[in-house]
Design goal:
Blueprint lengths: L1 E2 L7 H4 L31 H8 L11 E7 L2 E9 L3 E8 L12 E2 L6 E7 L6 E8 L4 E4 L15 E2 L10 H10 L8 E4 L1 H4 L1 E2 L2 E5 L2 H15 L3 E4 L3 E2 L12 E5 L6 H13 L3 E6 L25 H4 E2 L4 E2 L6 H17 L4 E4 L2 H5 L21 H17 L4 E4 L21 E3 L1 H12 L10 H4 L6
Parallel strand pairs: 10-13, 13-16, 16-19, 19-20, 20-21
Antiparallel strand pairs: 1-21, 2-3, 3-6, 4-7, 5-6, 7-8, 7-9, 11-12, 14-15, 17-18
Helix pairs in contact: 5-6, 8-10
């Protein structure tokens, strides 16, 4: 059940200006040494780097990752990856027989820790990874954190791809602010795209998002739902996780087809005035060797202190929200799905595990903040920045917190000390209600407060 208070229309007034696309580097080299296997080229301006380093670059997907382009009248792909503690980074793939020595990227001359370069003739559909050598000479074969497409699991390489699509939902976007407003009735149909429907002729085959679209749209419309919530559709290696252990945050899972197939599904739902909420998991990530864990040989995306950086229940790693570059990565990812995939909302998973260092930990096994308390101030600031950026960038979208604790002010405005979410899953209310109905009928009059307790902290 969703819960909203305060009618968060305030968000349009109290937040930063809409995030803007940062222009391409006006000082890019006009002459290129075309004799090299990797040409010097950059999409980054000094302003990009400054924003990135302070955690305020919210459109990194326009710069990082792989980008098809034409340089010096030559088609190819530009690559950029953050690996500040690496001694070298090269691109490997089928195009160079996975040779680690032939296509080294250039480390930027500034303090950004970004490696980049343009490789001629690398075309759409090429599979690749980054070969990262750590400062201690350790070797790591990594997927691209910003890849927009991945190989089908169990293969783990990234794929050069675009997100071009001819959207037909202009009418929906024009009225979304009204239909998706907090004072409108909302009925959400949540589903796991990979198991909702299978190929009748081959039940083992997962249907693509494009194949699912006609049946799903028809069913949701017939049942009268206003919203569809898709369990995580970002790339993930372990199918039984339902997508909640993500390795490719910017890639629509190849299990469901191409990025364009997912766009087609969202477009089809919008044509019938059905909003789309995406489950989003900025709370933790798995330790698969091709993923974010120890990306450049160090604890780059996760905390080095495992009391802060490791989740004992899920056996996964927790983002270092104190690191500005990680905040830029995550908020850019949220903006990416709202921008390029026209999502109408994000349901943010496991917020309670982000807010508290002692979440699901035994006494004595938890870190504390600099005031001796259990709250993770870095995560709190990240969630506030996230909501300010999202509501400042898109009209008519919503963020929803899946939050199971009694943390106060989850849907209160950021300027009033809240987290700034539009809505909250009422998990506390659900648990309190179940406890209430377990009480004998005659004794319930002493427990009515349980039904309204969630109002005090939402």
């Amino acid at each position: 059940m969703l819960f909203s208070i305060w009618g968060l229309i305030y968000l349009a007034k109290f937040i930063m200006p809409k995030t803007k696309k940062v222009s391409e580097n006006k000082t890019a080299l006009t002459t290129v040494d075309t004799s090299k296997s990797v040409w010097a080229h950059s999409l980054f301006t000094d302003y990009d780097v400054d924003l990135f380093l302070v955690g305020k670059h919210f459109r990194l997907y326009e710069k990082m990752g792989s980008h098809l382009m034409n340089v010096q009248k030559t088609e190819g792909t530009y690559f950029a990856v953050w690996a500040p503690n690496a001694s070298s980074v090269s691109v490997v793939g089928v195009f160079n027989n996975w040779d680690r020595s032939t296509h080294p990227l250039n480390k930027r001359w500034d303090k950004s820790g970004i490696w980049e370069g343009f490789i001629p003739k690398v075309a759409k559909g090429e599979v690749y990874k980054y070969f990262v050598k750590g400062f201690d000479e350790s070797e790591h074969l990594k997927g691209d954190p910003y890849a927009r497409k991945w190989e089908h699991p169990p293969q783990t390489a990234s794929v050069v791809w675009d997100t071009d699509y001819s959207w037909k939902d202009k009418s929906w976007l024009a009225k979304r602010a009204k239909l998706n407003a907090l004072d409108q009735p909302i009925s959400v149909y949540e589903l796991h795209l990979g198991s909702w429907e299978r190929d009748p002729g081959n039940p083992e085959r997962v249907l693509t998002a494009r194949e699912v679209a006609p049946r799903l749209v028809s069913y949701v419309k017939e049942m009268g739902f206003t919203h569809v919530e898709l369990m995580p559709i970002m790339e993930f290696p372990f199918f039984p996780s339902w997508g909640y252990q993500i390795t490719g945050y910017f890639g629509a899972s190849s299990r469901y087809g191409t990025p364009q197939d997912l766009m087609f599904l969202i477009d089809a739902l919008h044509k019938e005035n059905i909003a789309v909420i995406l489950d989003w998991v900025p709370s933790h990530f798995p330790g698969d060797r091709h993923g974010l864990y120890e990306f450049d040989g160090t604890h780059l995306y996760e905390h080095a202190d495992m009391k802060k950086g490791f989740h004992p229940d899920w056996k996964s790693y927790i983002f270092n929200y104190d690191r500005p570059e990680v905040r830029s990565f995550l908020i850019s990812n949220a903006i990416f799905w709202l921008d390029l995939y026209h999502a109408d909302g994000l349901r943010v998973d496991a917020v309670a595990s982000m807010l508290y260092f002692n979440f699901s930990r035994e006494d004595g096994d938890a870190a504390t903040n600099d005031q001796g308390g259990p709250e993770n101030f870095g995560a709190i600031k990240f969630l506030q920045d996230l909501n300010v950026a999202v509501y400042g960038s898109f009209e008519g979208v919503q963020t929803i917190a899946e939050e199971s604790s009694t943390y106060p002010g989850v849907t209160h405005p950021v300027h009033a000390g809240g987290l700034g979410f539009g809505m909250k899953w009422m998990m506390g209310w659900m648990n309190d209600t179940l406890k209430y109905f377990k009480v004998d009928t005659l004794g319930r009059k002493h427990h009515h407060h349980q039904l309204s307790f969630s109002m005090t902290y939402a």
